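Bit of a strange request maybe. I'm writing a small parser for structure token strings and I need a real example to test against, not something I typed by hand. Could someone generate the tokens for this chain?
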Amino acid sequence: MSLLTVGSVAFDALETPFGKTDKIIGGAATYITLSASYFTKANNLVAVVGDDFPQSMIDIFKDHGINTEGLEIRQGEKTFFWSGKYHNDMNSRDTVEVQLNVMGDFNPVIPDAYQNCEYLMLGNTAPAVQRMVIERLTTRPKLIVLDTMNLWIDIANDDLKSLLPLVDVLVLNDEEARMLTGDYALVRAAATIRAMGPKTVIIKKGEHGALLFQDEHIFYAPALPLAEVFDPTGAGDTFAGGFIGYLAKTGDLSFDNMKRAVIYGSAMASFCVEKFGAERMLNLSQDEIYDRVKQFVRLSAFSVEL
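Reply from user aminoacidic:
Good idea to test on real output. This should exercise your parser:
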């Protein structure tokens, strides 16, 4: 079933305890669409880049079945750039440099071929831009998933809160959930967020897994213990891409199937952190994905006698 992803396609420069990179391809929509490409072939991208963005990467998108008709290339302008340095624990990082460039006035244009999409993934951008996308669709998708971050909670709080009634699923991390609600207890924070509009809330906890909340139901998915994490950049977006990609593939929005989607999303994120940038996401096999999912199942499985 058709998926539309709107977000950033960017350049990143990264430094972790394992090394550093020059400019490599990044951006929320890059990770989301690459991850989702392993589940759905109706995978549509809306983003903006400058004329410095390499054709070779656009070809990679196409090779993964990602429709790039909605990728705007602005002549004479530069692509969004972010540079960051991770601390030794890999859970915290410092932003070294941000150049908004074409993202400074991102005005998403939805091609006619993308209308009537059944699944919409709103990658991390300003809430005002995310609202534009919803308003520019001629029919409401079957499922709208929204990702956000602490920046928008801080500087665009009213815009974000007014947007929440329009979406079905909100994805954010534990720090952001507490920041949005003022409540340290994540169970209460999730209930407060659901009262703001989204029926379903996913709270990511990095190396400690993810929590899925819907009505009275709660599901916890562990993170896969890895001997080495080279680069956590994009792991959350890769998770979101795997989550919505699996839902688009199966067409089942029940809570039980969302639990499976969270596991698939977690599996995809576990691949992402194994190499710098999106490199690991370029050449996965279905057998690798299924084997990784089985590791998650074994990690959580147990028996008990009562």
